[in-house]
Amino acid sequence: MTEFTHKQPELTDTRGRSLRDLRISVTDRCNFRCRYCMPREVFGDDYAFLPHEALLTFEEITRLAKVFASLGVHKLRLTGGEPLLRRDLETLLQMLREIPEIRDIAMTTNGSLLTEQRAKSLRTAGLTRLSVSLDALDDNIFMAMNDVHFPASRVLTAITAAQTAGLTPVKINMVVKRGVNETQLLPMAEYFRHSGQVLRFIEYMDVGNSNGWRMDDVLSAAEILSTVQKQWPLKPLPAQTPGEVATRYSYVDGGGEIGIIASVTRPFCGGCTRARLTSEGHLYTCLFASQGLDLRAHLRRGDTEEQLYELIAQTWGLRTDGYSEIRLAHTPGFQNKIEMSHMGG
Fold first, then answer.
1. With 50 as the cut, is the pLDDT of residue 4 above it?
2. What is the CATH number of the domain that holds 43?
3. Is the residue at 141 inside a domain?
4. Would the pTM count as exceeding 0.85?
C-alpha cells in the first residue's frame, strides 16, 4: 500500500474532531431480538438480511482498515449484528493485527456464542478487549428484553470465559430503559463490584427507526448515578483517552469502577472521534446518520489506496455531525436513521 507521508499530520472535521476510532460491522445478522435494537415485529423470520456476496470480504475490510490507519485511526472495534455469527473471524483478526498503526482491536458481543475455547482463539488471533451486552441478571427481565429466551447465566459464563482468556478488563454494557429493567441497576452493580470487570450503564437511545423510542423511557445518567451512589459512594475518574464516551466513576471503597454513557442527556458529540463501516462497506460518520458513503463500490471498481484515502479524508473533513446535541429540540422521528443492528453500536 502507498505510504501517505506527504499528507496532513492530523485529519480533522469541520468541528476540529480527529479521526481515531473505526467500528467495523462484520455482519447485519443477530441471534437476539432485543426490543431496543432488533424488535421481532420488524426483524422477523422473513426479514431479508444481506446475502454473503454483499458483505465485505476480510481482504476488503483489511484494505480499508489500512487506509483508515494511515488517516489516524489506531483503534478498531468489531461489531454486528452479532459478530461471532461471521465465520472464521479469527482470520480477520490475524489480518488486522498486522497493520502497524493499529494498537487496539476490541469487539462487542452478546456473549451467546462465546465459549472459553473461542475466547482463547480470539485472544490468540489478535483481539485485545471485549465488551459484552447484558441488560439484567433477572432471567425474566433479561429474556423479555432479548426476546429469544436466552438466560443471563449463559452470558455470565461467557464473561468468565473472556476474563480467563485474558480479554481484560471485560466491559459489561447494560442498556437501561425506564419501566423495563431499572430495578436491575443495583443487582448488576453489586454483582460486578470487585470482579475486575467494568459495568457500563447506557441511556436508552433512539438509534434507528424501529424501537419506538420515547424520551419518557429514558432513565437519565443523573438518575442512574444517584441510584448507585446512594448504595455505594462513588468518585469521578478522569477520561483515559480523548473522545471517551463513558463518564467513569470508582467506588470509594475500592470496589472497582463503573461507566455511564449518556448520549441523550449529556451529549458528547463535540469529542466524537469514531467512524463506522457497515458489513456491506458503507461509511457512516455518526451513529444516528441516515446516509453513508458506499466504499464497497469504490473497492470493487478498482480504486487505488490513494483514491480511497482522498475519498475518506474528504468525507471526514466535511463532517458536521451533532445529532445528540439537537435531538431534544425536535420531535421523535424527525430524522430517518440507519438501524443500529446494521451499522453496529
1. no
2. 3.20.20.70
3. yes
4. yes
